Recover the amino acids of this structure.
C-alpha cells in the first residue's frame, strides 16, 4: 500500500524531528555524575511519566529504571535512548539516567484530556487491529484505527481472534467484514488464542518488527499476548465483569520480546486513541480506497455529500468501493466535527 504524506504531515514530522534534535543538543551535562557509568544505547521497554525502564541491547534478562535528565522531551516505550547506568557497587536499586533520546522512525500519539498531543509509543512498524465475533465488531472503529495507522505511517493488519466462537449465526457477518478489508488490500489473519489455530502465521508476521496491538475491550488482546508469550502472565479480564468506566484491565504500556522474533507493545493508551486532533478536511486522505476519487471532485472544498460533480459520489454510484467505508468516513467525520 502506497503511503501518501500530506504537506501538513510532512511539516509536523519535520517540526517534531527538529524538537528531538533540540532535546539532544540541550542536554544538560552539569549534573552530579558520580556513580554513573559511560554512555551507552538502550531500549525503552516501559514508561511511567519521567521514569523509564530500559534494556541494554542483547540483554533482555534485566531492566534498569532510569530518570530523565532535564530538558529531554518525553520519551516513550519503543524509543532508543542514550543512558548512563549506575556503576557496579552502587546501592541496590540505584537508578540510571537517560541523557538523550535517539531519532525515531515513527511515533504514535494521542491527545490527552487537555487536547495536547502526547506520544505513546515510538518506532512502531505494525498495528494489529484485533476484532472477534464477540464483542461484535464496529466497522467505524476498525476504520478509525486504519486512519490512524495511515496517519502515523504504520502498517495495519486485521487480526480476527476467537475463531473458535464462529458459528452458523455469526460466520456470514464476519466473513463479509473480513472480505471488505482483504479486498482493499489489508493483510487479514484469523486465529484463536484458545485453541492456538492460526497463531504460527501471526508469529511469523510479527518477526523483525515492533507491533502495537489495538482493538475494543474484550476482543482478546491480552489473551493473544499470553498465547504468543508463554510464561508472561498478562491479566485477562472477563467480559461480564467489565465496569462502565474501567473496562480495560491492562494499565501500563510495555514492550514484550516475542520468542519467535519481533516485539509487541500493549498499552491501553494506544487502544483508546481518537482522531480529534486530525483536521476534518484531511480525514478522507487516510481512507486508502476512497482518496483517489476526491481529486476528481469539481469543487476543491467538496464535502462529498450533495455537490454536483462530486467524483466520490459518482464512484459510489458505479460501485467502485465498499459503501460501508463511506459510511464509516461520515461517522468518523461527524465525531471530529463535534469537537
Ligand atoms: N472463545 C474464546 N475466548 C477468548 C479468546 N481469546 C480471549 N478470549 C476471552 O475473551 C475475554 C477477553 O479477553 P482479554 O484478553 O482480557 O481481552 P482484552 O482485549 O485484553 O481486553 P482489555 O484488556 O479489556 O482491552 C476473556 O474472557 C478471554 O478468556 C479466544 O480465542 N476464544
Ligand atoms: Mg487486556
Ligand atoms: Zn466530492
Amino acid at each position: 500500500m502506497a503511503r501518501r504524506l500530506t504537506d501538513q504531515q510532512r511539516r509536523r514530522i519535520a517540526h517534531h524531528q527538529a524538537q528531538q534534535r533540540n532535546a539532544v543538543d540541550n542536554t544538560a551535562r552539569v549534573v552530579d555524575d558520580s556513580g554513573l557509568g559511560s554512555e551507552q544505547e538502550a531500549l525503552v521497554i516501559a514508561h511511567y511519566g519521567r521514569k523509564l525502564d530500559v534494556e541494554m541491547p542483547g540483554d533482555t534478562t534485566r531492566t534498569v529504571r532510569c530518570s530523565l535528565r532535564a530538558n529531554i522531551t518525553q520519551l516513550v516505550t519503543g524509543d532508543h535512548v542514550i543512558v548512563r547506568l549506575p556503576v557496579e557497587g552502587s546501592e541496590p536499586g540505584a537508578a540510571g539516567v537517560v541523557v538523550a533520546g535517539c531519532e525515531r522512525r515513527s511515533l504514535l500519539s494521542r491527545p490527552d484530556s487537555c487536547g495536547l498531543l502526547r506520544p505513546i509509543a515510538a518506532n512502531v512498524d505494525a498495528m494489529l487491529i484485533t476484532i472477534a465475533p464477540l464483542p461484535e465488531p464496529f466497522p467505524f472503529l476498525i476504520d478509525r484505527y486504519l486512519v490512524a495507522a495511515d496517519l502515523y505511517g504504520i502498517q495495519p493488519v486485521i487480526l480476527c481472534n476467537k475463531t473458535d466462537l464462529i458459528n452458523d449465526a455469526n460466520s456470514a457477518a464476519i466473513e463479509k467484514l473480513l472480505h471488505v478489508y482483504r479486498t482493499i488490500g489489508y493483510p487479514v489473519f484469523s486465529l484463536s488464542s484458545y485453541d492456538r489455530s492460526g497463531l504460527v502465521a501471526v508469529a511469523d508476521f510479527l518477526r523483525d518488527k515492533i507491533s502495537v496491538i489495538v482493538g475494543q475491550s474484550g476482543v482478546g488482546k491480552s489473551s493473544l499476548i499470553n498465547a504468543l508469550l508463554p510464561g508472561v502472565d498478562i491479566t485477562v479480564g472477563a467480559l461480564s465483569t467489565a465496569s462502565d468506566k474501567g473496562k480495560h484491565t491492562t494499565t501500563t504500556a510495555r514492550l514484550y520480546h516475542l520468542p519467535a522474533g519481533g516485539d509487541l507493545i500493549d498499552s491501553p493508551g494506544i487502544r483508546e486513541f481518537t482522531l480529534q486532533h486530525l483536521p476534518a478536511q484531511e480525514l478522507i486522505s487516510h481512507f486508502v480506497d476512497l482518496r483517489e476519487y476526491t481529486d476528481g471532485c469539481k469543487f476543491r472544498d467538496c464535502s462529498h455529500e450533495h455537490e454536483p460533480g462530486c467524483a466520490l459520489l459518482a464512484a459510489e454510484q458505479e460501485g467502485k468501493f465498499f459503501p460501508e467505508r463511506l459510511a464509516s468516513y461520515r461517522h468518523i467525520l461527524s465525531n471530529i466535527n463535534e469537537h
Notes: Residues 7-25 form the longest helix (19 residues).
